[in-house]
Amino acid sequence: MKKPNKIIDHIIMITGLIILKYLVLFVIDGSVYVTMELIYRGHSHISMFILGGIAGVLIGGLNNWYTWEMSLTVQMGISAIIITCLEYLTGVIVNIGLQLNVWDYSDLPLNIHGQICLYFSFVWFFVSFIAIVLDDWLRYKLFGEEIHKYHIF
Question: How many domains in the chain?
Answer without folding.
Answer: 1
